[in-house]
Amino acid sequence: MRSHSTIAIIGAPLDLGAGRRGVDMGPSALRLAGLNASLNSLGYAVEDLGNVSVAQQESVPAGPENAKYLPQIAKTCTKLAHLVRDAVVAGHLPLVLGGDHSVAAGTVAGVASAFRQRGESIGLIWIDAHADMNTPESSPSGNVHGMPLACCIGRGPVELTHILDYAPKVAPKNVVLIGIRDVDESEGRQVRCSGVTVFTMRDVDERGLRAVMTDAIRIAGDGTAGIHLSLDMDSVDPDEAPGVGTPVRGGMTYREAHLAMEILSDSDRMVSMEVVEVNPVLDSRNRTALLGVELVMSAMGKRIL
Ligand SMILES: [Mn+2]
Predict the structure, then answer these.
(1) Mean pLDDT, the chain, integer
(2) Active-site residue among 4, 92, 130, 162?
(3) CA–centroid distance for 193 within its chain
(4) pTM of the model
(5) Distance from Cα 109 to the centre of ligand 1, integer Å
(6) Is 277 known to be catalytic?
């Protein structure tokens, strides 16, 4: 018996947090890859809420050099947080389609806040090539998509840490970062003192994904009402997922990525999910979005047999 029968899809075509353009087409690419019908085929009712509105990059000032487009990103993330919270309160499983990874500040705020109203907390599994734990003070680029995990644990610009008026959204002891292989130097210091559990690609190589995911689910699930999965498509090796803004060699294989989703699905602890950083401009025949849909399917319970 599944704990959710309806999936609420919310597109967040945000590209203001990324250094390269095109990621705003991510939600279209994922829908075009057959997302909604695929979820239907697994037996879910799908409620597609469309896309949240996003400012057009050409029509707004870039704003602060160390956190570009911060006011506009905060506005979109706040709208997204409300939609996500309402979906959780309605008993649905929200599935957010990015957009660059800064949308996670909104998604996580919405999910966490819905459970907080019931006196409960959530855990967070963040699968990514990067740590996304920069702050405006540490960021070499000023691109906000390198900051959302820091925001979720209460570090960073108040416009993002305090969406829905409180922080942190998730306790660091319930946050697990998996798959990283490219960390900025000053960001690395912030990761090490954050209290977040990190499994780098070396851990995945040495211990295997089964062991890493088992630990991750235990840590993110410890004392929490459920787990949010934030899946950055750049976690997968660029050979399989070329359509991302910041590809890094040495990522998860096709099967490792599926296995991570299958193990999380088996746990029945996932309460919400997002897929981010699909960039059709950099992709080849939409294969990164097609893989994204496949991974969503595995996370939502599709089995080989
Ligand atoms: Mn990311």
Answers:
(1) 97
(2) 130
(3) 22
(4) 0.98
(5) 16
(6) yes
